[in-house]
């Protein structure tokens, strides 16, 4: 279960990207986060993963999101892909574990 209570994200002390978002997502549910450019979809995902500073409370399986670092991987969408980049998506995602297991054990 993912529980979000009163989530707020403010950039540069003046731009409120998310305001008072509260939602509970039960295990097994599939959701879509949709909206126009600049609506806060990416900011919502980054807050959910603990990648941006926010206020409010976010828990995943009853654990605060900040305690889950190292257990969650995130690959941001980019409009330009370098097809000559010499690693697979799996290898790219696995790079997040190198601090725990060592670069050559990934």
Automatic annotation (TrEMBL):
Taxonomy, superkingdom: Bacteria
Protein family according to the UniProt entry: Belongs to the ABC transporter superfamily.
GO molecular function list: ATP binding; ATP hydrolysis activity
Cleaved signal peptide residues: none
Assigned keywords, A-Z: Transport
Keyword Transport appears in the UniProt entry: yes
Protein name, per record: ABC transporter-like protein
Domain ABC transporter: 18-85
InterPro entries: ABC_transporter-like_ATP-bd, Metal_Ion_Import_ABC, P-loop_NTPase
SUPFAM superfamilies in the cross-refs: P-loop containing nucleoside triphosphate hydrolases
């Amino acid at each position: 279960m993912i529980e979000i209570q009163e989530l707020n994200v403010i950039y540069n002390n003046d731009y409120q990207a998310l305001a008072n978002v509260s939602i509970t997502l039960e295990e097994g549910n599939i959701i879509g986060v949709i909206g126009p450019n600049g609506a806060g979809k990416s900011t919502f995902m980054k807050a959910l993963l603990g990648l941006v500073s926010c206020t409010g409370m976010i828990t995943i399986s009853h654990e605060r999101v900040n305690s889950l670092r190292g257990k969650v991987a995130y690959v941001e969408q980019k409009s330009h892909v370098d097809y000559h980049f010499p690693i697979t998506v799996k290898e790219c995602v696995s790079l997040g574990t190198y601090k725990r297991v060592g670069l050559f054990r990934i």
